[in-house]
Amino acid sequence: GVSGKKVNVLVVGLDNSGKTTIIERLKPRPKQSTEVAPTVGFSVDELQKGSLTFTVFDMSGAGRYRTLWEQYYREADAVIFVVDSADKLRMVVARDEMEHMLAHPNLRKVPVLFFANKKDVPVAMPPVEIAQALGLDNIKDRPWQIVPSNGLSGEGVDNGVDWLAERLG
Ligand code: GTP
Ligand code: MG
Is 120 touching ligand 1 by the criterion CB < 6 Å? Predict the structure, then answer.
């Protein structure tokens, strides 16, 4: 096939936020899995998005694996940070991990896309509230965007990735 510019996209966020599910929605339909299991360590996929070839690093969000994230900061051309919109109890943990990541010297000033995932869950916080809880207004040194998504239906996923692709093309 035709493959254009190659970009490395690092996908992080707490365990169970929906990272692997969202990545499945980016694959051509026949290749999508409906059942996903918690990621062990990380997995890498190559996906075509318009004129871009995304090398996607799907990191585990489990506590014992989060130290692996920083191994890939240096290579990252973009970050996708997935938040479970319904996980109010761990919003502060997500904020801590996000701030820790943005402060890391190996992560360049690359664009960060936040998916406010699981928007279908009745108790999901709206994206503006999540942005406030995460303190996203404090991010002034790089482009960022927050986009509501439903990893199960795929709703919102293309919106977010289109935003990212515009910054990488
Ligand atoms: P780790 O690999 O452990 O870090 O988790 P993950 O972030 O990759 O989460 P994963 O994609 O495995 O999804 C966790 C659970 O959330 C699964 O049962 C998914 O089916 C479910 N899930 C993912 N996205 C959504 C969503 O938008 N809405 C709802 N209701 N469930 C979702
Ligand atoms: Mg996963």
Answer: yes
